[in-house]
Design a protein that fits this description.
Elements (H helix, E strand, L loop, with lengths): L7 H5 L20 E7 L9 H6 L2 E7 L4 E5 L5 H10 L3 E6 L5 H4 L1 E3 L2 E3 L2 H7 L4 E4 L3 H8 L6 E4 L4 E4 L2 E7 L8 E5 L2 E3 L19 H11 L8 E3 L10 E2 H7 L8 H8 L2
Parallel strand pairs: 3-4, 4-7, 7-8, 12-13
Antiparallel strand pairs: 1-2, 2-3, 5-6, 9-10, 10-11, 11-12, 13-14
The chain binds fe (ii) ion (FE2).
Fe (ii) ion binds next to loops.
């Protein structure tokens, strides 16, 4: 199956030191902050070999006081994901879509059909929060309608219960990719992994935009914020932004010119 991370840069930097010092860290949490990281094929959709192969992370984010929760990137076994939410006695109040790729929101991928937001809406009525530049792409891939979407501008903030979530527009992998900053965690979709970043050689990708997203937009995220990526492409499942900046080769280029030599076509 085609991975979502960069290949070219991985080859170019094959001699970089291994990613040794990243530990699995829990997010900085307040008592009322509800946060779960679920791995496809392991924590849900356990009988789906594609889910296991793709190693997608789905996130549940909520407010334990009001019992409201959102799901980030529901795909594969959406009934399983809702069951986990139900078991935790949390009520679904929305879906956040990091980007339109089928392994994050459902749809067709290389001859396979992946469950996602459309099937979830059949089970539980809610809104899907997308960046404006991703709205048409999400509709096309998942066949949801305008009325199913809540369309956002860069920098919008939403609330789950009384907990604010900032929506950071981080184009590059796709035009309307977004990351979610909440309570000392950064849920990054396919924009940034512990090692590498999302591919910039796909339709709709933009290597220069990715440089800006990683080196400018995400540079404002504090070092002690914990990065939670959209796939498990490393041994560890999370790392602080400080450690990630130190170890991830995507932070090595000092200029857009150097970046484009690594990631440009
Ligand atoms: Fe992707």
């Amino acid at each position: 199956m085609m991975p979502c991370s960069q290949n070219k840069a991985t080859r170019l930097l094959a001699n970089q030191p291994p990613f040794l010092r990243v530990g699995t860290l829990t997010a900085m949490t307040s008592d009322r902050f509800y946060f779960r990281q679920l791995l496809s094929g392991r924590d849900f959709a356990t009988d789906d070999s594609m889910a296991a192969q793709m190693a997608n992370f789905v996130y549940l984010i909520g407010d334990r006081t009001t019992r409201d929760a959102v799901i980030v990137d529901p795909a594969y076994g959406v009934a399983d994901i809702l069951e986990i939410l139900d078991r935790d006695d949390m009520n679904l109040s929305g879906v956040l879509a990091s980007h339109y790729h089928s392994d994050h929101v459902g749809g067709s991928m290389m001859g396979h059909t992946i469950e996602g937001v459309r099937e979830l809406l059949d089970l539980r009525g809610t809104k899907i929060h997308v960046q404006a530049e991703e709205a048409e792409l999400v509709k096309k891939v998942t066949e949801v309608s305008d009325g199913d979407l809540h369309v956002h501008d860069p920098g919008d903030q939403i609330f789950v219960g009384e907990i604010p979530i900032s929506l950071l527009h981080t184009p590059g992998h796709t035009p309307g990719s977004q990351c979610f900053l909440v309570e000392g965690t950064l849920v990054a979709g396919d924009t940034l992994f512990l090692e590498g970043c999302g591919r910039t050689d796909l339709p709709g990708s933009d290597a220069a935009a990715m440089y800006h997203s990683i080196h400018h937009t995400l540079s404002k995220v504090p070092d002690d914020t914990v990065l939670f990526p959209g796939h498990r492409y490393s041994f560890h499942s999370s790392a602080t932004m400080g450690m990630t900046r130190e170890m991830n080769y995507v932070f090595k280029p000092d200029s857009e010119e150097q970046w484009m030599m690594m990631f440009g076509q």
